[in-house]
């Protein structure tokens, strides 16, 4: 008998955007902010609830317990906040504007096959993290250590034997990040190219 699990979606949006030079969450793509696009993307996926990691009063949000320590800050705070009510968390970053509903849906399907957790191996995001006491304790331990290397995503994935999956080469552009003005320009070029092919 298949056991249904409650999965929350979380948009990681608590960074300083220092490399971009302006707030990434408020960058506009097709008249929508990246934050609004990311929340809307998760809302179109069959998740039980959607939250934003970071101080974003217009959305159900989760504030970092240990601020400005990279993605693990938001992951740790989200696990602490959602642990009692959900079984797993589907994480996406706010700066991946070309991510598709199909890519998220495919990852959810793979989670049924790999309940230890699953991620896109060429980009690390998005990923699905199951929550149990071991995961909670691990995050609580590494978030408080001084060594930055201990807070790596790769170490989290390998510690819990999470499964990396590959995407089709034709879809690799979906996982482009926009951390810098140059990367943002590349994303905009790709987006406009996609729109032209649609017309």
Report what the structure shows.
This protein has 199 residues and is an alpha/beta fold. It has one domain: Spore Coat Polysaccharide Biosynthesis Protein SpsA, Chain A, CATH 3.90.550. Helices cover 35% and strands 17% of the residues. The chain is built from 6 helices and 9 strands. It has helices at residues 34-43, 71-82, 101-113, 133-142, 153-159, 181-198; strands at residues 7-12, 28-29, 32-33, 49-53, 61-62, 88-93, 118-120, 127-130, 163-165. The strands form 2 sheets. A 7-stranded mixed sheet has the order 5-4-1-6-8-7-9. A two-stranded antiparallel sheet has the order 2-3. The N and C termini lie far apart (46 Å).
């Amino acid at each position: 008998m298949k056991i249904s699990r409650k999965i929350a979606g979380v948009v990681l949006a608590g960074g300083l955007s220092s490399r971009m030079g302006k707030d990434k969450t408020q960058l506009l793509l097709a008249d929508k902010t990246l934050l609004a696009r990311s929340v809307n993307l998760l809302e179109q996926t069959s998740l039980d609830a959607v939250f934003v990691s970071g101080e974003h009063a217009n959305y159900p949000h989760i504030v970092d317990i240990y601020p400005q320590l990279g993605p693990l800050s938001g992951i740790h705070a989200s696990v602490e906040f959602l642990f009692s009510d959900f079984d797993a968390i589907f994480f996406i970053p706010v700066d991946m504007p070309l991510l598709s509903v199909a890519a998220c849906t495919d990852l959810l399907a793979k989670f049924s096959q790999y309940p230890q957790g699953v991620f896109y191996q060429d980009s690390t995001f998005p990923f699905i993290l199951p929550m149990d006491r071991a995961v909670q304790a691990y995050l609580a331990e590494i978030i408080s250590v001084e060594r930055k290397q201990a807070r790596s995503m790769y170490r989290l994935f390998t510690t819990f034997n999470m499964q990396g999956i590959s995407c089709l080469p034709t879809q690799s552009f979906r996982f482009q990040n926009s951390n810098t003005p140059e990367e943002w320009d590349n994303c905009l070029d790709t987006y406009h190219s996609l729109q032209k092919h649609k017309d």
